[in-house]
C-alpha cells in the first residue's frame, strides 16, 4: 500500500490507558506500506516480515519515529515491531534534511537506494584496480 496523505486514527481502547488502543497503521503477513505523507494519531504496528517505509527526513529512537515528510507534515509516532517486522527510513532527493535519517542505538545513517545510472552500452577495454595501503608507526618512550 502507498499512503500519500490523509488522517489515520487508531481507536481508543476501553482500559483507560493505551494498552488496548487500536493502531493507525497495522502491517502484517509480509505486507509493504510506503508512507509519503499523512497525519497519524495512534501507534503503528508492523509484524510477520512486513515493512513500513517513511519517505522524508526521519529519525528512529527505540519505537519512536519522528520527522517531516516532503510536504512538511510532521510525524511523531510509536511504531511497534514484532516477528521480523521492519521500519525503513528513506531520504528523498526533493527534500534537504538537517541530519541524515538514522536509527538508534547506532545513529548511523540509513541506506537509501542509489540513483539509477544510465548505461551507454559502450565497451570497456581495460581493468582498473585501486590499492589502499595503511601504515601505522608506533613509538614508545620509556
Structural commentary:
- With 142 residues, this protein is mainly beta.
- The chain has strands spanning 2-9, 25-27, 32-41, 44-47, 51-61, 64-69, 74-82, 86-90, 102-103.
- Strands 1, 2, 3, 4, 5, 6, 7, 8 and 9 form a 9-stranded mixed beta sheet that branches.
- Strand 6 (64-69) and strand 7 form a beta hairpin.
- It is globular, with a radius of gyration of 21 Å.
Short description:
The chain is an all-beta fold and 142 residues long.
Specify the overall morphology: globular
Low-confidence stretches: 110-120, 126-142
Strand content: 35-45%
The ordered string of helix (H) and strand (E) elements is EEEEEEEEE
**Quick one: how many beta strands?**
9
Largest sheet: 9 strands, mixed
Quaternary state, please?
single chain
What percent of residues adopt helix (DSSP H or I)? Answer: under 10%
Distance between the termini: 67 Å
State Rg.
Answer: 21 Å
Mean pLDDT, rounded to whole units?
A: 76
List the helices and strands and how they pair.
Blueprint: E1 2-9, E2 25-27, E3 32-41, E4 44-47, E5 51-61, E6 64-69, E7 74-82, E8 86-90, E9 102-103
Which descriptors would you attach to this protein?
142 residues, mainly beta, 9-stranded mixed sheet, globular, disordered C terminus
